[in-house]
Amino acid sequence: MTLFVFFAVLAAAAMHAIWNALVKVHLDRFLSITLMTLGMGVAGLVVLPFVEVPKAEVWPYIIASVFFHMGYRTFLIGAYQAGDFAQTYPLARGTAPLLAALGGMFVVAEVPAPLAILGIFLLSAGTLVMSFRGGAHLEKLNLRAVGFALGTSIFIASYTLSDGSGARLAATAQSYAAWLFICDAFGALALCLIFRGPKALPVLARDWKTGLFTGVLSGAAYWIVMWAMTKAPIASVASLRETSILFAMMISVFALGEKMTGWRGAAALSIVAGVVALRLG
Q1: Is residue 233 within 8 Å of 116, Cβ to Cβ?
Q2: 205 vs 45: CA distance, rounded Å
Q3: DSSP annotation string for the chain
Q4: Are 99 and 72 in contact (CB under 8 A)?
Q5: Which of 40, 124, 134, 229 could join 219 via S-S bond, C-beta 3.0 to 4.6 A?
Q6: Cα–Cα distance between 170 and 187 in angstroms, integer?
Q7: Packing angle between helix 234-241 and helix 143-169, nearest 10 degrees?
Q8: CB atoms < 10 A from the CB of 124, how many?
Q9: What is the pTM for the complete model shown?
Q10: pLDDT (0 to 100) of residue 274
Q11: Distance between CA 107 and CA 152 in Å, rounded?
């Protein structure tokens, strides 16, 4: 991974943390993600005249990614119903890079260097510790919640591998991203109508400005990630993207005045060590 790609992914991680901090509307997380995805679709429509139409061999990756994203959102709903998603989601974010690394070995024949493997494990461990706040609530997790969390991680790893492979095959990462965002917006809207019904549409419409802004920010961040996966190993990029949780911690401490605790410091050190290992690897 070159230094330029390295810092580009770090910038994307920071943008990911920022849009998460900005989504403070009255919607629940499912509707917030749906709204953001629709905003990404609008952003894709704007750049559509300036990018190529994907070749026939690229479309299976786009279609697969849309279904993987729909599976991710479906398991998100299941996690809500099974328990506190604030506890189960960290399992998904922490284990997804590990699954992407394993999948990358078989799907795209990429075997990370030893230092990169160490970096992936350190980043995943730091993400889990940071999200679980020192693991204080681990004992409250039930098997059903864990199942939905691990299912979510499988879908995250799956669309990461699909998008990385598809972006590499496409004419440009911009072309792949634009068409993916548009198709995914239709998938998100269909899923929203299935689970929430037409009554959700006026609710989403009331916050369209937030959806458009966060959609553009999120779309730009994920486009950088997809572009980076055409220049560097998918597993390394996917893991480095999880530094967004470190940026989120910095926002909460320095902008929102939250307390810097011992577990946060330990998790931050683990994430930073993972970043260094990925760079050296």
Answers
A1: yes
A2: 18
A3: --HHHHHHHHHHHHHHHHHHHH--SSS-HHHHHHHHHHHHHHHHHHHGGGSPPPPTTTHHHHHHHHHHHHHHHHHHHHHHHHS-HHHHHHHHHHHHHHHHHHHHHHHS-----HHHHHHHHHHHHHHHHHHHTTTTTGGG--HHHHHHHHHHHHHHHHHHHHHHHHHHHSS-HHHHHHHHHHHHHHHHHHHHHHHH-TTHHHHHHHTHHHHHHHHHHHHHHHHHHHHHHTTS-HHHHHHHHTTHHHHHHHHHHHTS-----HHHHHHHHHHHHHHHHHHH-
A4: no
A5: 40
A6: 21
A7: 130
A8: 23
A9: 0.85
A10: 87
A11: 19
Mean pLDDT by 10 residues, the chain (281 residues): 91 83 69 92 95 96 96 83 66 81 85 86 81 53 78 92 96 96 96 93 90 91 95 90 79 73 82 84 67
CB 32 within 8 A of CB 22: no
- Residue 109: CB atoms within 10 A of its CB come to 7
For residue 155 the two structure tokens come to 């879908």
Residue that is written with structure tokens 């410091």 in the block: 265
Tokens 């499912």 sit at which residue? 30
- pLDDT at residue 46, rounded to an integer: 95
Contact between 162 and 68 (Cβ < 8 Å):
yes
Extract the tokens encoding 137.
């609530």
